[in-house]
Amino acid sequence: MNSNRYLKKTKFVSFDRTFSVFANHQRPDRLRMLNDRNEEFQIPRGAGLSYAPASFGKDRLIRDMCSFDRILEFDESSKIVVVEAGISLKKLLMWSFSKQLFLPVLPGQPEITVGGCVAANVHGKNPYKDGTFMEQVEWIELSHPTLGTKIISRSNEKKIFKALKKVQKAKKADEDDNESKFSDAERRLREELAAFKLK
Predict the structure, then answer these.
(1) Phi and psi for 10 in degrees, rounded to 5?
(2) How far apart (Å, rounded) are the C-alpha atoms in residues 28 and 160?
(3) How much of the chain, in percent, has pLDDT values that exceed 70?
(4) 3-state secondary structure of 77
(5) I need a surface site. Which of 43, 71, 85, 125 has the fewest CB within 10 A?
(6) Nearest in space to 84 (alpha carbons), one of 43, 28, 165
(7) What is the DSSP letter of 198?
(8) Which DSSP state fits 88?
């Protein structure tokens, strides 16, 4: 099957509207389309809601994964749900609420895809308590255009999951540092405002 016939040129714009580019775009809806050989560098794209232009680039094939949005299985006893990368958090939550389940880590945008949450290792309003999105992930099945598929789990690829934890700790340390800087700046601002009010 020649997937090139499904290509189109599309203008992509970053969420904050500061960057745009025209690139080849494809919206596969079958796994066999993902397995087609394509020489272009590829970027999978979810909802495209990252502030950075992480899901598109010049001279890249952008593969929109939003058609892969199914819930594949659910284990009632372990409460583990298996989903495709293109499912939005909104759709997943609508399903989970019916089972009286809730995701501990939720970013502010409900249309973001699970694949996007994994790729950016997003966090919600409670990273100190529940960590980031990857802390909730048990395994990922990756599809590579030349290497095929590979399952990466906490048991068979501990180094990858540990590396993500180290990145999270570094982010947390950076946030703590920024928080103290913000507190100092806020304190000075309050002092200046108090002085201003007194005058």
Answers:
(1) -135, 145
(2) 28
(3) 73
(4) coil
(5) 125
(6) 28
(7) H
(8) B
